[in-house]
């Protein structure tokens, strides 16, 4: 039986930074001369947002959302995923870029996108560190993607296993034993 | 006067209803009459076939813009306005749930008695009779749940439920006639308990995993419909549909169908083929499969259904 814990490196720090600069260049080109609001969902994308925005050249603001799975009692009453931290900025009429760590089924993204669209931004694009299009259930267009997700459980660079390993500067496979 | 009759196969419901119509000398509307008198005006030959095969197709829109279920309802209501009538099946107990003078009757019997009657009436072996009864019950239940999202066996849909284990055809017919005439003379307003109404609005899922997935969609604030459409995917040489596919969920805001394959992995290849056929025959239709592993991951993440976690 293999031991549980971080395994082989899947994306090195250099690979992440190199690809991140390429994606940032695309975003700089697309939003040239425009103000931008970056919205991200805590906590997986914190390092990605921090590094990405340092390579963006347009005037920008950063905002965060935080969601919470409902309690058992709330679930029984049909309660849904709650936004425990909502937006600080008014998105109406603004150019908005949603930055995610991982996009898989797209269900959570669907929830967040509906929430952001309700604020009536002028535009809403999506940028992700890792994309798993093979697992997608909802047809949501991803505008900027750094890497395609391998069929592995990953930690590091913001991704966690039970809240650990987020601070690794690279992305590694996590063996669950 | 309006009497609606719903029956279990083998309950003698059909015989009792015909006897009732003869005794009272009033019109009797049956599904066969609807198929021959209502739908030929609004449905093509292919659509007629689909209506005979698939309850979900009643929710498809005809070329006139109404669903076939709506066409049927309009014609049934027109018939009711013309005078006393008995409606046999067709979800009439739901269509006319609020009708002030309606008597909604359900005719049942115990499984043992029903099977024995099926054996005698159809000359079947015991095993085949059991199978016949199960399939018939399932079809009746599915028709009501698909079109009206109601549970066919919900006792609150009926004013009276007759168990014919120890009742004869004449006796049962006379009992219903007596009740109908008494109801007509007293003209009591129909009362539908609010709780029952709410209960009836619940979707009847075929498998617990579908219900769990619906909860996951609800938690994400994503609107969904359960098996709203059946796609024909295979036809025989004469153009009759030989295989159809009803994806489990439709997400209208994302114009996407979702099919779960969490129950029996032996069917995964079969479902993949169906999805491929659907995509090929209906280009532009978004349909995705949730595989067992992905389903279990979702369920675990959102803390639902403990048995799914243990399957991982």
Tell me what the structure shows:
The complex is a heterodimer of chains A (177) and B (312). Chain A is an alpha/beta fold and 177 residues long. Chain A is built from 4 helices and 9 strands. In chain A, 24% of the residues lie in helices and 32% in strands. In chain A, the strands form 2 sheets. Chain A has a 6-stranded mixed β-sheet, sandwiched between helices. Chain A has a 3-stranded antiparallel β-sheet with strand order 1-9-8. In chain A, strand 2, helix 2 and strand 3 (60-68) form a beta-alpha-beta unit. In chain A, helix 1 (13-30) packs across helix 2. The model of chain A has no long low-confidence stretch (mean pLDDT 92). With 312 residues, chain B is of the alpha/beta class. Chain B is built from 13 helices and 11 strands. Chain B has helices at residues 13-24, 31-37, 45-53, 68-81, 92-95, 111-122, 126-148, 169-186, 194-200, 208-219, 268-281, 292-301, 306-310; strands at residues 2-7, 27-29, 85-88, 102-108, 160-163, 225-226, 231-235, 241-245, 249-251, 256-261, 286-291. Chain B has a 5-stranded parallel β-sheet with strand order 2-3-1-4-5, with helices on both faces. Chain B has a 4-stranded mixed β-sheet with strand order 6-9-10-11. The chains are: A alpha/beta (177), B alpha/beta (312). The A-B interface holds A 69-70, 72, 75, 78-81, 105, 107-108, 110-111, 114, 135-140 and B 215-222, 251, 253-256, 258, 286, 288, 290, 294, 298, 301-304.
